[in-house]
Specification:
alpha+beta; about 100 residues; five-stranded mixed β-sheet; elongated
């Protein structure tokens, strides 16, 4: 059964790589592939809620898992930029381009 699962995962990886530049194995469920997507993140800062749009994530495609991870350093950088934007412009919504 393990060899059949491996072949299936191999085909899934090939299909996913045809559609996305990068894919990851899901460490949570070990069955799904994580593909790139975006999300909105909210962070309280100086009494206001900052809304950070288009934050890059990887999302598991296994319907029973749906684990989400952030690429290394991406979320911290987005929060830092949103705070700088708030401090200079007073805007609570920051959109990553």
């Amino acid at each position: 059964m393990g060899a059949l699962t491996m072949a299936t995962n191999s085909n899934q990886i090939k299909d996913a790589l045809n559609r996305h530049e990068v894919v990851r194995d899901c460490l949570c469920c070990s069955e799904g592939l994580m593909i790139p997507s975006t999300t909105t993140f909210k962070k309280t800062y100086k009494g206001d809620t900052l809304i950070i749009e288009n934050v890059p994530i990887f999302e598991c495609q296994n319907n029973e898992c749906k684990e989400i991870t952030y690429p290394t350093g991406t979320l911290l950088k987005a929060i830092r930029l949103a705070k700088e934007n708030y401090d200079t412009s007073g805007e609570v919504v920051y959109k990553i381009k």
